[in-house]
Fold this sequence. Notes:
The protein has one helix and 38 strands. The protein is mainly β. Residues 1-34, 245-249 and 435-444 have low confidence and may be disordered.
Amino acid sequence: MKTTKKQQKTRGDKLACGALLSLALFAATPAVQAVPYIAGGLGNFDAVNFEGQDVYGFEVQIEGITAADLAPSWTGNKYGDPLVVPYAGGVYVRYQSAYDSAAKQFVSKTVPKTPGISWQGTCYMGYPSATAYLNAGCDHFGVHLNYTAMNSAHQTTYRWMGADANNPGQLVSSQNSIMVATPTYYFQALPVTQPTAPPVLVAEVDLPLPRPLTVPQYGDAVWMKVFKTELNREVKLSELTSNNPDGTTNTLVPQDAAQVETNWKLMQQSPPPDGNHRQRGKLVNQGTPKIDSKAVIRRYESYAYTGLYDNITHEASCAGDPNDLNNLPGSCNAPMIDEVGDMLAAQMAAVNIVVPSLTVAIVGNGTVASADKIISCGNNCASPYALGSIVTLTAKAGSKNPFTGWTGACAGAVLTCNVTVTDAINVTATFKADTASSVVTGAVGATLSVKTSGGKGVISSNPAGISCGNICSTRLTGKTFTLTATPDAGFFFVNWSGACTGNTCTVAGNTSVSIQANFSK
């Protein structure tokens, strides 16, 4: 089965960064008028040998590029560096075994996969052991494309390579191709009337039309499952493996039930749209990244469809949907127990992103407001902004709490500060504590004060002492507190600010501190 890379959307419609999901891309600096942008898409994939015989290599055919468009490829398998073979319409990237002419056999091979036996985590060289890897029936590959070739590469196909019976020592490509999810990423264009609306990141996976196009028939169907997570840092290609080669579980790639984004989706190459044929050739996942997210990571799993097909059109004829109370046939929203077979491929994919935004934190008793009235902290302390926006912030001290200065993207002690939004920007405004009111009743010494901003949630502490909204301050002197922020339904935790920053917060000392948990919808 073939997979395609959708052409990058025009900047007039969508700010896009298409990526073959077995490709690593690195973006140029975006235009100033853009709001969010994509800094690079990257991925590695596991492929399983269901050819029914030993294979001695793997081929990735990329149409529309030249050899100069390729960056170094993944080499962490038994085949080592791939051979790049240009042709008139593109390139073949071929991982292939050396041939021992004296023994008349190939040196390396991928054995057939035994149906019904799990292979996850065994496709990496030496993991969990050399024997397990050699007998796993799968391997791990990755072909990386330079950013400048992104628009040129318009289709990619993945195939195993076997021995050429007519030419000893030569390999031939299989007639079968493997479904490896190939997403295109882009941010939806923001409405002109809502320049600070939360951005929506879209990942699309397309299957091509079956060939020849004149035959109104479906291709083979495949089930897809998608897992998703986000990080507040960019990820590297080497981190995108289900398990690290050193034997430790890689927690970056989402695989837990709680991280399922698409439970089941039936995909099938479809005839040209004519109103008579159901179109199942596209998988779309989308959502608003967290304000401090730097990477969105997905694991795409493809499984064999083992249900029935229409005798004439070859359209999948699912028996029903186990989650449908009416159990209507043909819905194909989820497989019946006998309609899903072995996993065919697993794609570990990430897109590194930048969501230009401004987050304000307050230490002490005071407020900060922006001239455009979008930031009003402590109520709304964070918002996305157009890249290059200049935001004017003004600090207002509370009673008996003079303003002492800015830190982060602002500096100095002048009440007004201009911030240029070039990334996810953080600013902290500090106000001098009122010693007459900073001590909790009945306590002596330093105090810990917490509050929430931007949304709804609860802050708790270990050891006990903070349970905010109810108890939002406690004695700090002589103690160490670890704070946990739990968002209410419909909200998510963004980060800590004030005396803590980032995603974790542990505080101790003999000086009173204020900490803020930032939530958002």
